[in-house]
Write a structure and sequence with these properties.
Blueprint lengths: L15 E6 L13 H16 L6 E3 L22 H15 L2 E5 L2 E5 L14 H4 L23 H23 L1
Helix pairs in contact: 1-4
Amino acid sequence: MNFGELAYPDVTTDAVHLLPLGATEPHGPHAPLSTDTLISVGICDRAAERLEGEIRVLVLPAVPYGVTRYGSTFPGAVSIGEETLRSLVTEIAETVGPLVLADRPDLVHSDRMLALEERHVDMPAAIRAGQTNFVAMGMVQAYCGSPAEASAEEGRQTFETLTEMLVALIREVAA
């Protein structure tokens, strides 16, 4: 159920809240800047639907900004600092109660206070070392890999895996 579409009398205190986190950043010429946010919202909606009748789940409005070092040298990246993100998410958690962050690829549980690690745990070592000028390093596209080689079935399987991970985490939080 979408939290933002509720009237305040319909908000209950017994729900697990999902906060979709995404970044507004380039993903190459083949994908929108909101790709991370779209994926996070998608898995939250699917998880809430899957748990309907078992656990009350409310999907909060997405936070479409994050720490965007990866795409910072390409047009379209909108970045906020780690402390800004941590403060925003912490204050949201203090307001709503039990909270699960859905951040592609990370899923993080919070119970009031958060200890967020760097937003993307799979960032290359170069980024962690502070080297974020990928253009200077020879990267000419705002993505890696071969998206043209991906299949719709692979995409469905990835979405299913992420949804299953999120459902398991929600069940853990609700227990």
